[in-house]
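go over whats below:
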Amino acid sequence: MKNLYGKTLLDNPSCTKSTAFTREERQKYGLRGLLPYDVANINKQKERALENMRRKTNDIEKYIFLNALLERNQRLFYRIMIDQMEEIMPLVYTPTVGEACKEFAHIFRRPQGFYITPEDRGDIETILGNWPEKDVRIIVVTDGERILGLGDLGANGMGIPIGKIALYVACAGIHPQHCMPVMLDVGTNNQALREDPLYLGYPHPRLESESYNALVDEFVQAVQMSFPKALIQFEDFLTPNAFRFLDHYGPSVRCFNDDIQGTAAVTLAGIYTASRITQKKFSDMKIMFLGTGSAAGGTAELMVAAFRDEGLSLQQARQHIWFVDRNGLVVSTNEIIKPRIRPFAHSHPPCGFVDAIAIVKPDVLIGATGVAGTFTEAVVRKMAEVNDRPVIIALSNPTSHTECTAEEAYRWSDGRVIFASGSPFKPVRYETQCFEPAQGNNAYIFPGIGLGIYASSARLITQRMFLSAAKVLSELVSNAEIQRGAVYPSLKRVRDVSKAIAVSVCEVAAHEGLVNGKLPDTLDEYIQSLMYEPIY
C-alpha cells in the first residue's frame, strides 16, 4: 500500500479498494469508521458503478462519470472497462472522446497527464522529473493540432492521450504506472478557444517553424534521458509534421505514429479478412483511397510492403493503389501532389470520383477524409456495380465525420457490401439479414505493439512489426464472425489479440536484431505474466 494509511490510503486512486477493504485491513490501515459497514467486493462495486453510469442520459455525461471513477479508483475503472469492453470503449475513446476534447476545459475536474509549453524550453528534462513514476514505458503525445476530424483543439486535445493510455492498460495490460499522457501545448490557432475564458491552454497562436521543431526535439531527447525504456507514440499531429517526425526520429528512437502506422495495420488486416470472403487473392486486389492525409498515405505505404511480401515488385505494388482527392483521380499530370502520394499518381486521364471507380474497378474503397457523406449513394452503388462483394472501409471518426454510415452502405449495395468503419455502428438489418458492422479500431493494433516493445525492450519499431500485426489480427477473425459481416474479432477478445500481436512483435524484433540478449522460449506465457490484471 506504499506505506499509506487512513484517509490518505482511501483517497489514493491506485491503491484504494474503497468499500472492499476487509475488516482486518480496516484495522491495520486505520480505516475503521471511514467506511460504511458492508465489505463490498470488486464485483459488487462494479455493479453499483455501472448502474450509476447507465442512469446518465448522454454519452458525454457517461464519459465524465467514468473519468471521475478513474481519478477515484483506478482498479475498479479498469476492471469495468475490461469486463464491459464493447460498452465502455466507445465512451472512453471514439466516438465520445471527440466531444470530450471539444468540452475538455469545461468538464475538467482533476489534472491528468503532463503538460509542456513554450515557456518550458530549456527545462523539459528537469520538469519531467516531476512526474511521479520513474519507470515510464509508454508515452502518448499530441500537440492538439489535428484532433480526430475536429481540427485544432489546442490543449483540449489532452483527452486523446488520456484515452489512448486507458486503451493501453485495458486492451494490453500495460500497468498504469508505466504509462504517461503528454500534451505539447504549443498554443492554438483556434481563435474561439483562445477567447474562451475557461480555456486551460497556452493562450497564444501556435508555435511554428524552427521554434516548434526545437521544442519537439527537446522533448524527444529529454525522454531518452529521463525514461530510456519508453516508447513514444505520436498522436494527432498535422499530416506534414506527423510524417516528418516519423521519418526523422523513427530510425533512431523507439517511436511510432498511430494515425499513420496503427491505422494502416488495422485497415490492412480488414482487407486480408475481406479477401477470405471475396475469395480474391490479396495480390490481385486494387485499392482506392479517398483522401490524401496521414492515414491514407501511411496505409498505402504499408500495403506496398504487403504486396511486395506477395512477390510483387515495388512498381507493380504501387500500380495496385489509387488515390482520389477533392479534384478527382490523382494522376501524374496534377500540378499539386503531396510528396507521399506522388509515387501513386498514375499516368491516366483526369476524371471524377464515380468515373474513377467505373474505370479502375477497385476491389476496396477506403475513406480517410474526415468529411461526412463523401461516400454518396452514387459512389456506393458504383462500387456494388463493379464488384459482387464490394469492400468499403470508412475510416474517419468521430461518427459525425464518417464517409457513410453502415446502414447506408448495406442499403445502397443491396446488402452485398463488406463494410468496416473507424467509428462504431449498431447492427444493421437489411431485408432478412442482420449485419454486425466491423469497427476498424486502432485499439486492435497499437496496444499489442506497445506490449511487444515493453516485453522485448526492442530498440526501434519497424514496418515489419505492423505488417506482422495486421496478419495476426486477420488470422484471429473466426468464421462465425465473418458470417455476421465482421472483418475484425470481437472487442471482447482484444486482450488476447494484443497478446498475440505482442508475441509477433517480439519475434520480429529478435529476427531484426533489435533485442539485447535472448527472449524467453515461451513468449506467450512470458507476455501473459507481464499483463496487468486489475484485482484487489
Summary: The CA atoms of residues 479 and 486 lie 9 Å apart. The chain has a mean pLDDT of 96. The first strand starts at residue 114 and ends at 116.
